[in-house]
Specification:
148 residues, alpha+beta, Alpha-D-Glucose-1,6-Bisphosphate, Chain A, domain 4, six-stranded antiparallel sheet, 4 helices, 27% strand
């Protein structure tokens, strides 16, 4: 009887382990490449404002490129439990604003989104969550520029 219990436990363990080691979900890169009818300075100001309000720290690498650190998530006393049990995610943004004329500019935005299943797993590329997606960031930027 005990031997059967060990065999059953071993069989359950063997079938459960591969289910936890699934390959990453394939997805398209989260990018936006658009021309906006506003000067590059106005677009850059709007991008910095929207990303800062969204919890990102924005660094200007040169006149055209902006990069962010990882987004600051809301912290609370139970975060360790949520991360350990349910996993977590993080995102950062790379932006390039180039002037095309005095009254228009080109915006290229790339959102890098990573997730993991718990404390003891590695970060993997994941599909971007809607609030951090490039399309949503673009909508907020257009709203700030009053282009909608």
């Amino acid at each position: 009887m005990i031997h059967r219990l060990y065999l059953l436990s071993f069989a359950i363990l063997i079938t459960w382990i591969p289910a936890c080691a699934a390959p990453p979900i394939p997805h398209e890169p989260d990018r936006v490449d658009v021309t906006l009818h506003a000067s590059a300075d106005l677009v850059t100001t709007a991008v910095v404002q929207i990303l800062t309000e969204g919890g990102y720290s924005v660094d200007r690498t040169d006149d055209q490129n902006l990069t962010t650190g990882y987004r600051q998530e809301i912290s609370g006393p139970w975060d360790w439990l949520l991360r350990w049990r349910l996993g977590t995610s993080r995102s950062r943004v790379e932006v390039m604003v180039t002037p095309t004329s005095e009254s228009s500019s080109r915006l290229r935005m790339n959102v890098l989104y990573e997730g993991k299943d718990g404390l003891f797993t590695q970060w993997e590329d994941s599909p971007t969550a809607q609030p951090q997606s490039a399309q949503n960031q673009l909508r907020l930027i257009k709203n700030a520029l009053q282009l909608l």
